[in-house]
Write the structure tokens for this entry.
Amino acid sequence: MDYSLLQVLWFILVGVLLIGYAILDGFDLGIGALMPFLANGEKEQRILLNAVGPVWDGNEVWLLTGGGAIFAAFPHVYATIFSGFYIALMLVLLALIFRAASMEFYAHDEPNRKIWSFAFSLGSFLPALLFGVALGNVITGLPLDATNWEYSGKTIGLLGIPALDRFIYLLRPFPLVIGLVGLAAILSQGATYAMLKTEGSMKDKAQSVAGKIWIAYVALLAVAAVLAQFCLENASGKVLSWVALVITIGALVALKLFISKGSELSAFLASSVAFLGLWGMVGGYLFPNLVINNLKGGENITIVNASSSQLTLTVMLIIALIGVPIMLGYTIYAYRIFKGKTILTD
């Protein structure tokens, strides 16, 4: 297969894996972050935990696969991002570890359930925010060394501690707004999934929360769209991003309608399509770049200059064509097995 075509295919495949993770793990991150607002007392907390318990670990396989795909197909991107975002990614990793552990301890350590409930919520909130902030930095641009694309952080001198200065630099206004948009999308996934998996007063509460999140979601997206015209180079000239924006707006309009009607499955699907549209805007803006270099005269990391060899991409594509359908099949099977409302029997 042609080398340039392989590079494009891997750009798309990595995007598919990250979108799959965002949509699937998005709802259980959202439920965790929203647990204090959705659950009153241990019974309702258990219902929410049981709603995500059978599927959350399978959802995170998409993140592991996406990270592995980046490492195999675009190793320079993997090296730049994982070293440059070191503190942020360590925070995410610790949050995910505490989140997973809290679910187990919640079930077996009854006297300390308030602590583990808090750990579950915090461990869900931090990744939900920081993933979006990281993505915002990728599209806004990073100061990358001209020789090896290492995140230099030379434009920062706030604290005099390089590691902390680099972390603070990631919290620039526009990436932070992108992070809040991503957080709103994840909370929307969580609230609509809670509508889908609960009933009675819990569903009504989730429906009310979903409506409030929708308002914040639309407002943040509008702010991000305006700021993008000033913070991103040639943002208005990216046709694919405009197409994705139209899809996102259409999905958000449908989401509002379905939330108002209490159409739980339709609301969750509309929220998922809106999330898909957000990723489409990012991919449409970046392509063929993978990481923007904001140093004057610096070279961006692209699918051309950062990809593995043609042989590696070919072999990995064969593996992906076998592995991804298996992973997708398992995901569909798991959701079919655990479909329906979550009801406590004890």
